[in-house]
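Below is how a single chain appears once it has passed through the pipeline. First comes the sequence as given, then the structure the pipeline wrote out for it. We keep one example in the README because the format questions we get most often are answered faster by looking than by reading.
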Amino acid sequence: MNILCLDGRYFNAYLERLGHHVLHAGTANPGTDRDLQCSRPITALELFETAKARGFAPDAVLWCDICRPPTVIGLETLPVATIGYSIDQYVNPWHKPYSAAFDTFFVAQKDSLPLFAHKDLPRPVAWMPLFYDPDTTQIDPNLARDIPVSFVGTLDGPLNTGRKSFLQAFNTLCPLTTATGDFRPVYARSRIVLNQSAAGELNFRIFEAAALGAAVLTEDVTAGLHDIFSPNENILPPYPRGDAAGAAAIAKAFLNDPERLAAVAAHGRRLVAAHHSASARARFLAQTAAEHVAGQTWRARLANRAAIRAETAKCYVFLATDEALGIPLEHRQAYLQLAQTYLAG
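Resulting structure:
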């Protein structure tokens, strides 16, 4: 298939290895010379004309969330299969109405599924958890596990004001190595990786830490954690959110039982390698796209044009009015005008 990938490029290489032809478009920095670099949001028609000039006729479109406004306007008008994947729907309310533009929409947080229910939209919404990237997440067998417990991530961000105090409280009870930036050299040396979420989400850190051979100690969340992992088997027992003393007690108990800790880490690594890699997600998405192409399911979307345009208009209202998104004023004005155009029919 010819797959036009928008914004997030984290599945592109794996789709190509499956034999598909991929063209990427987005406003972020291009990954390769083949990418279509968009300096501004563009229409779906404009994008397709540009792709056509490259000799690329898409069979399917895959939009992947990068926590930025969408590059392409009007995906709902395209007579090809459209698939969307939202990672950060819990901080981007515009994802819900934007999902109307797709034939299938996937969300990374299981407890967000009810938010996307809509009786007038033909598109199904399903859970597809996050993943790790095997190409960039590999273990050096020569590294010693000389870091008992680590945390890598934003230490004092505006979306998670309780993280800093939680990490400090944990560190007073159990020594904790903290860092920002590249997690790989730290996780590869860690026996335990401590995870704390921004908003109760099932985040990348869980999968990346397990893939790098550390035992994961995470807070208990309802976003699908227990559907994937089994406490004491492939993940350490989850702690209640904000309970630094409880988390430290779990960490110390397992550090004092190294064989049990190593077994949990090994089982966690095998689990994510088998089922939760970017390559596994790419295979699933390619199969989903093939089913939509064969069934021409985009016809139901085009037949439901009025309801879809009304819902998509809400997306542009969100983008126009939510100042927290940091969108330039001229772009917000354009989104508002676009919403008005959609609502006018």
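DSSP finds 13 helices and 13 strands in the chain.

See the next section for the split statistics.
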